Amino acid sequence: MIAPVQGSVGQTITLEGYADDFGSHIVAIEFSLDGGASWASHSTEESNPDLMVHWTFSWKPEEPGIYQLKVRSVTEDGRKSPEAAVTELHISE
Residue 14 has what pLDDT? Predict the structure, then answer.
């Protein structure tokens, strides 16, 4: 798990990271804020298959609480990361 991130209701939080599948082309990065029940996909098809993919995720929380952001990659052949990267978002009023 990545270190928790602090934020406030109405304040945009932007997280960033890198993904690499060691030889497979990453064509999308997926994000979930509901425990993995649903995923929002961001295309990275234009990325260079020989380099890591840099990703960013911006979110403006509407309610205080503790949220988990899950991030996973999707390769050209449809494989998804077997285990998503996870960070907690601690949102205050």
Answer: 94
For 76, other C-beta atoms within 10 Å of its C-beta total 13
Tokens 């509407």 found at = 62
Where b means 16+ CB within 10 Å and e means fewer, 19-45 reads bebeeeebbbbbbbbeeeeebeeeebe
Give this prediction's pTM: 0.88
What amino acid is encoded at 33 in this protein? L
With tokens 């990703």, the residue in question is: 55
Question: 3-state SS of the chain: helix, strand, coil percent to 5?
Answer: 0, 55, 45
Give all strands of the β-sheet with 26-32 in edge-to-edge order.
Answer: 2-8, 85-92, 65-75, 26-32, 40-43
